[in-house]
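Quiz preparation item.
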């Protein structure tokens, strides 16, 4: 299994989102300051030359250039001398600088906040998890299942002719041995399935969060490019990269459906053959995890302003991914409540209880540690 998730790329995308979100908020505040500066207009004295202002963005690609004079308050008695107008314009530029610099301050900490939100599902290294699961299946579960042999000592019918003090106890032990081995195979298979379902949720949440972060980064850079292109006019249309958000709730549902393929059992003889079903579920998980697990969320609003993009980031990472991921993990731990689900099968307490219930149906008759010679 491969997760298709790069922690370094995810962190870089969040850092870039924080940076660009601050730039975008700064652009909006500087634009608002520019357009709210005055109430009327006057003809600028030629001595002032052309108006020129650049936002103090440290990234030259996203510096916004203003080329037209703002409106200036022309109330009665206002000093319209070139010196006063120049002072007013200089004051405007300083006010725009101050407003723009508030943008990066406003966005400061967004990346760290999102890392904390996503840490539960981004920090696990899925290839290590799935490698351990596959090793457990190959070296423990399958060996327990494949070791079942009705005549494991190749005694033939010899044991039927035995008599003596412990002959009957030995025959019971011999006959029940295969059921005991099969039982252990199924129990370890259940445990391994629980880890597999958890790995599927983790891998899916990682893929979704990584893809959403990258799409939001592209969206922000597109918005900033529009600002530069429009030269101080606030863009009217969203960028050409609408943010992508995955449908984590749908992934949780399909993952829990996989657990339903393992039926609850009541009789010992029904335990046999479940290994092949567990293996089939793991193969399904293996096939899907190597590709794109996360389905698209069909409807998500276009975003354009800094506040809208921040809300989209927070909603997708926390509400869509984190909360649905936690709900899925809690459901795996609690078990299902309907036909086809093993209730409490993947929690430690529930699994031990189930093992005790099934194990009480039969057991190996003890062969006394007595010297038979």
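Solution:
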């Amino acid at each position: 299994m491969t997760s298709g998730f790069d922690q370094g790329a995810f962190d870089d995308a969040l850092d870039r989102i924080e940076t660009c979100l601050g730039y975008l908020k700064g652009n909006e505040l500087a634009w608002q300051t520019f357009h709210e500066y005055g109430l009327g207009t006057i003809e600028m004295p030629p001595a002032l030359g052309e108006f020129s202002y650049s936002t103090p963005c440290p990234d030259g690609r996203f510096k916004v250039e203003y080329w037209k004079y703002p409106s200036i308050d022309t109330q009665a008695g206002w000093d319209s001398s070139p010196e006063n107008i120049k002072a007013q314009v200089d004051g405007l530029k300083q006010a725009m600088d101050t407003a723009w610099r508030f943008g990066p301050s406003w966005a400061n900490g967004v990346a760290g906040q999102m890392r904390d939100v996503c840490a539960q599902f981004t920090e696990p290294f899925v290839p290590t998890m799935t490698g351990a699961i596959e090793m457990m299946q190959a070296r423990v579960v399958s060996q327990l299942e494949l070791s079942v042999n009705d005549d494991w000592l190749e005694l033939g019918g010899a044991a039927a002719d035995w008599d003596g003090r412990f002959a009957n106890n030995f025959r019971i032990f011999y006959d029940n041995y295969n059921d005991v081995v099969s039982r252990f195979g199924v129990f370890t298979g259940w445990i391994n399935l629980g880890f597999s379902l958890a790995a599927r949720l983790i891998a899916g949440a990682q893929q979704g969060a990584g893809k959403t972060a990258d799409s939001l980064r592209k969206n922000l850079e597109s918005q900033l490019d529009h600002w530069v292109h429009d030269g101080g006019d606030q863009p009217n249309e969203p960028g050409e990269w609408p943010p992508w958000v995955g449908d984590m709730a749908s992934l949780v549902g399909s993952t829990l459906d996989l657990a339903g393929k393992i039926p609850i059992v009541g009789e010992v003889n029904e335990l046999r053959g479940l290994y092949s079903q567990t293996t089939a579920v793991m193969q399904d998980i293996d096939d899907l995890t190597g590709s794109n697990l996360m389905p698209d969320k069909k409807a998500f609003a276009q975003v354009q302003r800094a506040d809208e993009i921040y809300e989209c980031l927070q909603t997708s990472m926390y509400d869509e991914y984190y909360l649905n991921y936690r709900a899925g993990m809690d459901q795996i731990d609690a078990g299902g409540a309907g036909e086809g689900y093993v209730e409490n099968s993947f929690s430690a307490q529930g699994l031990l209880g189930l093992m005790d219930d099934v194990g009480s149906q039969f057991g190996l008759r003890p062969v006394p540690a007595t010297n038979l010679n």
